[in-house]
Amino acid sequence: MANLSAVYGTMQLIGDWTPDMVDNLNILLDEWRQWSYNIDAEAFAEDHLTSEFCANGRWSFDANLESLGKWTTITENETVKKAYADLCGELRNKVDENGDPTAFIQVDFSEEEGGCEILREASGQIIVRDGELAGIITSNQDYEYTKENLVKLNFYDSVEDIDWLDDESGAQM
Known about the structure:
By secondary structure, the chain is of the alpha+beta class. It has one domain. The chain has five helices and six strands, in the order βαββαααβββα. It has helices at residues 19-34, 61-66, 68-72, 78-92, 147-152, and strands at 4-14, 40-41, 50-58, 104-113, 118-129, 132-142. A six-stranded antiparallel beta sheet has the order 2-3-1-4-5-6. A hairpin with a 2-residue loop joins strand 5 and strand 6 (132-142).
């Protein structure tokens, strides 16, 4: 069984998003909140293009982003299937002359997983690749797994709150 990481961050709709695209994404967000991803995000609207979210990663959130399309399509919910197909179709058509996406979801997040001592900030994009939604990581900053860095990345309010982590080695006690 995979270790679950704690993830929080923001998602932002970049480019030209129609009201139908936003509606379809909100249907998918509801599906992601309930099932495999455990992504809890605020709904998007025409005047609300940035959403804060929290989630759990499977080892790391990269694995969730990479499998986004595959995991979403296993649903038996016809409304979700239609929303997914419609959103993928719309996003597939929003590319520039070089084939680069002109509409996508920008994802910026912090992640912590103590078993493998993962502590990082990362950015990525959710795009359509090979006909499916897929996430790609565009930047990544790893941090040493220390009390100070856990506070710096806002997983804890103060180092006093982290009595289970050894000050010297970073190892869990």
